[in-house]
Amino acid sequence: MSDKVDTKSFEKLDKLRSLRLEHRDLDDVIDRLALDPAVDQIQLKRLKKRKLCLKDQIAHLESDMIPDLNA
After folding, report:
1. C-alpha angle 25-27-31 in degrees, rounded to nearest 5
2. Among 19, 32, 47, 71, which has the minimal tally of Cβ within 10 Å of its Cβ?
């Protein structure tokens, strides 16, 4: 019996946690900037685009972690 630990699963969980944290932080920043009438709209759009990209990465990682039941 092997005592090897599946490090890839832990790496994926760590990456997922990191992406979720960054997504949440960006959400807070976007909410605060949206209240400022003098905010740079291009910067705000870039932040929103980054947030969507993070959401896609999170969804992709989550789907990779679901076991394939067609085995």
Report:
1. 120
2. 71
What is the value of pTM for the model shown? 0.79
Range of the domain at 17: 8-65
Residue 53 in 3-state DSSP? helix
Gap between the Cα atoms of 4 and 34, Å rounded:
48
Q: Is residue 3 part of a domain?
A: no
Centroid of chain to Cα 17: 8
pLDDT in tens, the chain (71 residues): 455 667 888 898 999 999 999 999 999 999 999 999 999 999 999 999 999 999 999 999 999 888 777 65
Separation between Cα atoms, residue 39 and residue 65, nearest integer Å: 39
In whole angstroms, how far apart are CA 13 and each of 19, 31, 34, 44?
Answer: 10, 27, 31, 29
